[in-house]
User: Fold this.
Amino acid sequence: MSVVEQAGVVPLAASRKPRPTVRSLALRTVGVVLVVTLLVFMVGPIVWLALRAFSDVWPYPRFLPSDWTLKWWHSVVADKSLGHTIKLSFEFAPVVTAVSAAICLPAAYAFSRFNFPGRRTLLVSLFATNAFPKIGLYISMAGVFYSLNLMGTFMGVVFVQLIGTVVFMTWIPAAAFSAIPRSLEEAARDAGAGPLRVFFRITFPLAAPGILVAMILSFLYSFDEAQGTFLVGIPNYITMPTEMYTLVLNYPEQAAAVFSILLAIPSVVLLSLVRKHIMGGRLAEGFQIR
Amino acid sequence: MTEYAAPPAGLQIAHVSKDLGGRTIVSDMQLEVHAGELTCLLGPSGCGKTTTLRMVGGFLQPDAGAILIDGVDVSRLAPEKRPTAMVFQNYALWPHMSVFKNVSFGLRLRRLPKREIRERVEKVLELVGLTHHVRSYPAQISGGEQQRVALARALVLEPKVLLLDEPLSNLDAKLRIRVREDIREIQQRVGITTVFVTHDQDEALSISDRIAVMSGGKVEQYADPRTLYREPATSFVASFVGAMNFYTGSLHDGIVELPGGARVPCDGVQAAEEVEIGVRPEDVRVTENGDGAEAVTLREIPRGHYKELVLQLGDAEVRAFVPPELPVSERHRVRFTRVVVYREGVLQRSAAPVAAR
Assistant:
């Protein structure tokens, strides 16, 4: 709440000399209300989740739980299947990221640098998979997967997760490649570098922040993907998000809260690790294109 | 070396044509740049000057014709195989490399010993006056400094031909004049064959050994700055380079007849019907009570060390550059000291004594 107070009170105090008009006061009030609403909607659910994970009894009309406990954490951590699902999730996510990078990065480069027939159509059609409800798509895919003996296999799960990752693994790096002025590559050719060397010394390092963002999104997508993984993976491959379904059904909801907090840890850690690289403005400030 | 076998040094562009996107950008272009010479390609946007430069640099392949450097055909070579170095319009410095890394990039590719790389980079940075910025990144230095880094990066490879693509267009007016003098000075000190693309005639006139004025993918005139200014070969060159009054009128012996019938005396002109007549504003002699055609003063524009007068002669408007101390009255007497005459865009030397003075 201190943020809100600062936003509301300090400017009021500072503007004492030129008397605030009714209009500016109204505007300021609207601003404060908007900020508070935003905070409630963004932070509220997370706070509720955290409270839930440590609460024992939480009778309905009360604002806070009446009893606090760590037993949900004990029971979730003690569940012997948990360790296995965490391990599996951490196996799938890097593999899916690597495979989608291997497929999509060359495609992204081609989309950005070459003009070929059907370029636009192909680029837009990447979104087609997102236009349908995913579950319908997965169920019709299951037929194909059965005939290819991919159901219940590691590669089957990787493939089903790739459907979600190809879109941003292509679009974001393509945008990153397009943001690099061609003259930077031409200057390197001019200085004596062949096309491959130009790519690895100039293009790739400059597109790296965009590629990194796409890889993190892909990692997190794979980490959180439940529907397709559930459909293709069970009973052999149960990852953390699919395990969630079981938990929600078999345990009180407090256990699910604990589990979602656990599931969120990798995302938070990853994003805070790379924040510097994504936000770091060297890429943006380095181009002197006017 | 025998006197027969010596290949022509410098750069030759021989009958080069290029179509891009279904349009002919450069057509049957011919140009020869002597070793150590600075040639400007000057023209309006879309005249093919940058396309020509990119063909010399190897970023575009000519559809026809050949490009020779020191007598060797390089037309089919990739940019990395050519003895050319380019300074790009936006400088194209690599933002993830320091000034040292930028300048040394080409040398490191050539796997030169570390010590030699350091020495050569230091030498070239000294030449452009940037030794204090070795460790800086492109984003940390000013536009003029970035421009000089780009120049150093090109020069450090000791290319046979240096290519500059509108290198000053991103600088403010004052800096532009200083940097262009720096470029000319460095070019003369190194003695490197240079092609400089610009749309700024002032820039071209002040730094070039020779200027090729281009229009519609062809060279209109290729001459030294003085000839280009005093004897423009076509009416396009005459109107593009420097200020010029242009009329369609006729000539009588010693008289220029402007549209609307005003007759302005001009020594040496010979009778001709229906021609284009060009008069430089400094070739308009304005007096208060001398001989000549009578003109009405429309405007007076102070220009610092001279004054521009806009005069009305019959239906024609004449712009004249006069000394700032000339008293301006409502009416003046006007003579032309020199005119250039064109028929169908081509200079008619017989009608007016262009080479005089």
User: Anything to note?
Assistant: Chain A touches chain B through 25 residues (CB under 8 Å). The two ends of chain A are 42 Å apart (CA to CA).
